[in-house]
UniProtKB/TrEMBL annotation:
Pfam families the record matches: Snf7
Organism the protein comes from: Chelonoidis abingdonii (Abingdon island giant tortoise)
GO cellular component, one term: midbody
Gene3D superfamilies: 6.10.140.1230
Keywords recorded for this protein, A-Z: Coiled coil
Coiled-coil blocks: 16-47, 134-164
Family note: Belongs to the SNF7 family.
Protein's name in the database: Charged multivesicular body protein 3
InterPro entries, alphabetized: Snf7_fam
GO annotation terms (biological process): autophagosome maturation; late endosome to lysosome transport; midbody abscission; mitotic metaphase chromosome alignment; multivesicular body-lysosome fusion; nuclear membrane reassembly; plasma membrane repair; protein polymerization
GO molecular function per UniProt: phosphatidylcholine binding; ubiquitin-specific protease binding
């Protein structure tokens, strides 16, 4: 009993499951942000801002790579949980814990995940004291290698992502937009109409729909004010013309 109480395997398992929930929240947050980026890509493509689309596509590649790593982390966590179950079985039979290469490999990967790094390091130290794993050396160059790999992947996948989001229509957009920017009123009105049609097809979430309606109302108010101003100017111009003719 004293030996079992000195090896808190159940406590480690609880901490691991808690961190798995943290990973799940991180994945959901990243995926929500990716949906926002997709909308921004579509808006930029409609305005012909291909350079903006390229930047946003790179951001999507980063987010997808992050989600992929987080899913891999969950797999490593499951490996650790299975290892903990095996350790409990060994403890009951042999009366002591044994080194586990499977747990050590999984923990080596988990201590590199920023979202759970602090907890994983703490668990690693406890496991080292219990004799389950040996001291681990962190790869300080991994982040640099991942950054270079991400840039190469971005160059290869960027066209594919843009084609996917814009349904192949991005090729019609110029690389830069200069003349379109001053004409915010006409382009904005056309963009909003197209966006509303596309959002109806995609059945966007109610929160985004509410936000879209609010934005459309503001734009309609602005356009109404602009029409009133133009009408006033026209009436003033006509009245002046009549005065001069008289």
């Amino acid at each position: 009993k004293s030996l079992f109480s000195s090896t808190p395997v159940n406590e480690w398992s609880l901490k691991m499951r808690k961190e798995m929930r943290v990973i799940d929240r991180q994945i959901r947050d990243i995926q929500r942000e990716e949906e926002k980026v997709k909308r921004s890509v579509k808006d930029a493509a409609k305005k012909g801002q291909k350079d903006v689309c390229v930047v946003l596509a790179k951001e999507m590649i980063r987010s997808r790579k992050a989600v992929s790593k987080l899913y891999a982390s969950k797999a490593h966590m499951n490996s650790v949980l299975m290892g903990m179950k095996n350790q409990l079985a060994v403890l009951r039979v042999a009366g002591s814990l044994q080194k586990s290469t499977e747990v050590m490999k999984a923990m080596q990967n988990l201590v590199k995940i920023p979202e759970i790094q602090a907890t994983m390091r703490e668990l690693s130290k406890e496991m080292m004291k219990a004799g389950i794993i040996e001291e681990m050396l962190e790869d300080t160059f991994e982040n640099m290698e991942d950054q270079e790999e991400m840039e190469e992947e971005a160059e290869m996948e960027i066209d594919k992502i843009l084609f996917e989001i814009t349904a192949g229509a991005l090729g019609k957009a110029p690389s830069k937009v200069t003349d379109a920017l001053p004409e915010t009123e006409p382009i904005g009105a056309a963009g909003i109409a197209d966006e509303e049609e596309e959002e109806d097809i995609e059945a966007m979430q109610s929160r985004l729909a509410t936000l879209r309606i609010s934005t459309s109302c503001k734009l309609l108010l602005c356009l109404s004010s602009l029409k009133v101003s133009l009408l006033s100017c026209a009436l003033l111009y006509c009245s002046r013309g009549r005065c001069q003719g008289a």
